[in-house]
Design goal:
The protein is α+β, with helices and mostly antiparallel strands. The protein has one helix at residues 14-24, and strands at 42-48, 51-59. It has a two-stranded antiparallel ribbon with strand order 1-2.
């Protein structure tokens, strides 16, 4: 555990994921900032030493029909 190839998955509701992203970005507490997440949206982060990189937020490419995407 804790090696360079370790991966962690978090499955959560969008509001909680917004809070996680705000915590990672040092935006807590801030009701003025909200990170929107569609249902099944995927976020990806990478920890490089002491630097957290946000690679993408709310990726929904896997949803191949517009009617599957939540607002």
């Amino acid at each position: 555990a804790g090696g360079p190839a370790e991966r962690v998955a978090i499955v959560s509701h969008g509001d909680f994921m917004s809070c996680i992203v705000k915590a990672f970005a040092d935006h807590l507490p801030s009701p003025a900032i909200y990170y929107s997440h569609s249902n099944t949206g995927i976020d990806r982060f990478r920890l490089d030493g002491n630097v957290l990189r946000i690679l993408y937020l709310n990726r929904i490419d896997h949803l191949d029909r517009p009617d599957l995407v939540s607002p």
